[in-house]
């Protein structure tokens, strides 16, 4: 039996399938089937990360290291990741073109788009400085993705130190919601954030750390609200 191709080998194949003159954003038109959604997700994070780098005018080693922590790029595959990054950086298509392509692929508001936004936040804050240009960039990406403003604020509160991690925002609930309702929402969001669910949504196994980080934030928010009510 042939050994299954690695994620990065499949990414290499996806890039090779582009016809001459096609930009990187066209790759999403060739990745419609569920088995290839992890490829699309990874390419989208790299591509939008490359576009986001222009928001604060620089790409730092910390941001590159953050991506490596999320995706655990194996030795020998750095060239494929770098190729995607360079293709996105030099592509004339704007970041909104990439965001619309990936939103159309998964469907506006799809949970996997929340995962993708979290990946971008992880990269944005990796250098210890959340730039106003990055904030504007990520707000627009969230809008194109069809994510609610409260969802954007919840993710920002989980990643940006200056954005106080208000537990109500993390759970996407209005302050003062009855504790029984808070508990029910917390449980639902914890189930949704489970790493197995994340993989089922199209995240590659290499990116399940995003789901694990969300679980930590959700549990911390519930603990804080519950303790205040005690």
Q: How would you describe this structure to a colleague?
A:
- This protein is mostly helical.
- It contains 12 helices and no strands.
- Helix 2 packs antiparallel against helix 7.
Report how far apart the termini are. 58 Å
Shape verdict? globular
Low-confidence stretches: none
- Count of helical regions: 12
- Overall mean pLDDT: 80
List the main descriptive attributes of the protein structure presented here.
12 helices, 230 residues, mainly alpha, 67% helix
How would you sum up this structure in a few lines?
Helix content is 67%, strand content 0%.
SSE topology:
Elements: H1 7-16, H2 37-56, H3 61-71, H4 78-90, H5 95-106, H6 111-124, H7 132-145, H8 149-159, H9 167-170, H10 179-193, H11 195-201, H12 208-229
Helix pairs in contact: 1-2, 2-4, 2-5, 2-6, 2-7, 3-6, 5-7, 6-7, 6-8, 10-12, 11-12
